[in-house]
Amino acid sequence: MNQTKEVHNHLIDACKKNDAKAQMQLYDLYCNAMCTIANRYVKDCFIAEDLMQDSFIKAFQNINSFKGEVSFGAWLKRIVINNSLDWLKKRKLEIVSLNDEVYERVEENEDWSISHSLQADFIVNAIKSLKEKYSVVLSLYLLEGYDHQEIAQVLGITEVASRTHLMRGKKQLQELLKEQNYVEGY
Question: Which single residue of 12, 39, 70, 160 could bond 48 by disulfide (Cβ 3.0 to 4.6 Å)?
Fold first, then answer.
């Protein structure tokens, strides 16, 4: 494990010196994972690839600001997510703020009974099939671990809207999984 970290640190130091070979090695290490992350948000593999490449360019241009407080992968992932969200905002992602009445229902009905044969890829694809405003919030919350305050800040919505989109997205996801016989009665 330490050897891998040393290799990463060596590559990052070389990238700080504009070493193109080191940049290509870091790119090769992370490109597939970062493309997958971008694709979760934009739902188009070609756009996701462009966003991933733009993120690497931005990362290499700002590599001197990388202090190693988090792993390089986590730092790069944040750049990819922000680029993906910026792309969605440019497309004028429709996010509607809702009233407190809906907010109160968010925490209800959290007990899901999911079939053990369900694969993670199927869930990710099911999330991607939802309306954009729901899939983005679900991805940020469930897959990336953002809280409602962070989601609200990143998307420029209220925390209530974030909770509402999460609740509605979960409901649609449950219905979709139920249709596929993956979720038992709720």
Answer: 39
Quick: pLDDT tens for 64-97: 998 888 888 889 999 999 999 888 888 765 444 4
Of residues 5, 139, 12, the one with CA closest to residue 84: 139
Give the whole-angstrom CA distance, residue 162 versus residue 102.
Answer: 11
Class assignment of domain 2-90?
mainly alpha
Tally Cβ neighbours within 10 Å of residue 127. Answer: 23
What residues does each domain of the chain span? 2-90, 100-179
How many residues in the chain? 186
CATH topology (fold) of 100-179: Arc Repressor Mutant, subunit A (1.10.10)
